[in-house]
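Late entry, written up from scratch paper. The run itself happened at the end of the previous shift, but nothing got recorded in the book at the time, so transcribing now.
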Amino acid sequence: MAEGKDLSEIEIENQKIIDNAQLSIWEAVLPVLILVGMLAYNVFVFGDDALSGSNQFILLMGGAVAAFVGFRNKVSYKTMIEEVAENVKSTSGAILILLMVGALAGTWLISGIIPAMIYYGLQVLNPTIFLAATLIICAVISIATGSSWTTAATVGIALIGIGEALGISLGMTAGAVLSGAYFGDKMSPMSDTTNLAPAMAGTDLFTHIKYMAYTTVPTITVTLVIFIILGFFQNTSGQADVNTLLTDIDKAFNISPWLFLVPIAVIVLIIKKTPPLVALLAGTLLGGIFALIFQPEVVAQVANVEKLDFNSAYKGVLQAITVETSVATENEALADLFTAGGMAKMLGTIWLILCAMVFGGVMDAIGALARISSFMLNLFDSIFGLFASTVFTCVGLNFTASDQYLAIVVPGKMYAKAYTDKGLAPENLSRTLEDSGTVTSVLIPWNTCGAYHSGVLGVPVFDYAFYAFFNWLSPFMTLLFAAFQIKIRKLVKA
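Output as recorded:
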């Protein structure tokens, strides 16, 4: 990254792509095929734990395979290392943003901002519009937390129980939970996938979110309308009782509408086009200040002291910013939601990005990405063909590599050059990666996301897949926009 610039501000012509006329298409594709095979087997062996480090090492092994192909085609070790260094350097902005996102999540937890969103969100429940309300609640909570997994494991479980008591199909309820949860997973600046996609494509976080809204807002609107219609055909009985959850949240935090001043301030900064790092830092610091004003008991608990003074206040806020922090609650359903990982939680995603940059850097250096891009451009001459190829690749990797992160990382590196050659801005690619890579992972039983959510909610994937309307409509929406050339941003050279 150029000093003082976001990823989107780097001049495209300064990003060199190495061509290698000696490299055949099969040699260029071979490292990708081997990488996908190794990743698929690795996820099969490690399951959800694959992201703890083994997938990262497999990416390095993929880079080693690419290096072997490079050596056979007379590409020097020095050239490969230099290209890896350039790739790693280009992600420095994204890495700093990831760390700040972790810090923001920590102070927003101990200040009560996230719990307040949950508290007020739960109160909109009404049995007659339960499915639509479930969608909205999970969307709000997922945006606030940046995690579909946390949303499903906490409020999602409670909503499944409420829906069952009302006599609503578990598949429908789970579909509404996951549709809302993955809307937030796509749109929240605190989501790791929302940070990962622009990092892979070469744009910045808030440009990505703004551009992604063009396809995401219509999709969630259609999804909401469908659930409203389905609600009219439900024969519900009983009353959605969330008093226990509300009481336990109120016990743990001092809930107040004033807490919403912080997210409002961050939104205003973003609208005013404040640099992402500045907006996130402001949100983090304001969250810390509001924690001391509204939740001194929580800060004292985090600092492990009985009475708060300057030193313990400093310690409590800094711990929330940097490491995993938990707020005590007697309600097991809220325990995970009352936990934030801080900056430390983002290290796994940063590690994944760095290892992906090694693989991508070697692929760049040996000319493989340029060769693949050239082949894809010849195979899919139209813009729609390029978008369709990206969608199919992302979905295919969710099936084969069984992980949504890899369904973003690998196509992101593979297709960046092709989008540039077509004169398309990088946010076209980052949006397509999320519209097809992030959201479809939960629809595949053997994918880590599908297995996780099915286990947490207690609903088989095949029971909820049809009702997860947002998830399977998203790739169709991005293809619809591509087919009719709607909001397809062209590359503007400096």
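The chain has a mean pLDDT of 84.
(Scratch paper discarded after transcription.)
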